[in-house]
Amino acid sequence: MILNRNRSLKIAGILLLSLIASGCVTTPPTEYLSKQEAYGNFYEEKPKTVLVVPAINHSTAADAGNYYAATVAEPLTKQGFYVLPIAITDQILNEAGISDGAQLRDVPLSRLGTLFGCDAVLYVTITLWDTNYSVMAGNVVVELNYRMVSTKTSEPLWVYQNKVVVNTTGSSNNGLVGMLIETAIKTAQQDYLPVAQMVNNSSMHTIPAGQYHTAFGKDAMDKVVNPNHLPSQE
Amino acid sequence: MKLKLLACCLVLASLTGCVAPQPSPTGFYWGNYSKYFYEYKKNPNEQTLKMYKLTLEKIIKESDVNPNRKVPPGIYAELGNIYLQQGNKDEALKWFQQEQIHYPESALFMKTMMEKAKS
What we know:
A: alpha/beta, two-stranded antiparallel ribbon, 8 strands
């Protein structure tokens, strides 16, 4: 019996470790916060329209901002929000000499609100976008820091920090999705789009649902926010 | 036994992955938007613009014939903006209006775009 127990424990431990290594589970679900606990402001303001501004890119990948811009609108609209057309808002900001979100630091939120008619602005800082290679293995590590802020009160409405590690070689232990992504990655130039999609999709389900989502107004008690993904207060 | 159950659950969890794509309750249909918008954004040229525009038109067309699909926010407007850049103001206005009709919360921004198209 004792032997059996130990073996089961070992197996569970190894599985837990592999899950942690794949970057998915870091704390037991019991410690997750409800959306209301994590993002109380959001439920008070109920923003409908979101302006996505260019990423603040601190990574070594020059193209990371484009990958982000091309994949952020889909999950954000599917979470129920009106996202201002990024192709146009990026172009307007570009014409004003702004291609990196860091340049917006001194632009008052209320001004962005009046210019674009938006309730909230989504900033993102790309802290990591690394490709690691060796003969036997490779991976992509992406870390994003999201911050959605109210244009009315300048208060943060949703903050989330997410790191995703994707294996790019060998037989995947990342599960089916990992394998699919791996295959996609190996195929072509489009390499990083699935990675960007993965990190955006896996972050945005924690945003309180917007008006176009069937869960609008019903998800406050959903315990889906991992406190480890909340950036430490500045 | 409990431990075995736990182990099984963990195996299942690792098999299903962490971000299994789910059908959206919003019905928004994005087609191949990410791929072709990315290519255009990275290398704006005639060919990438053509593919990006085709993608937008395809999203609209395929949503029109499928009651389970909806044209997501911004698609009509982005199509209008392409026409605006090509100097086709009438087409631009038409699509900006479509955006506003489908998404009234875009009114302020679409007004700006329509004024730009009329000037």
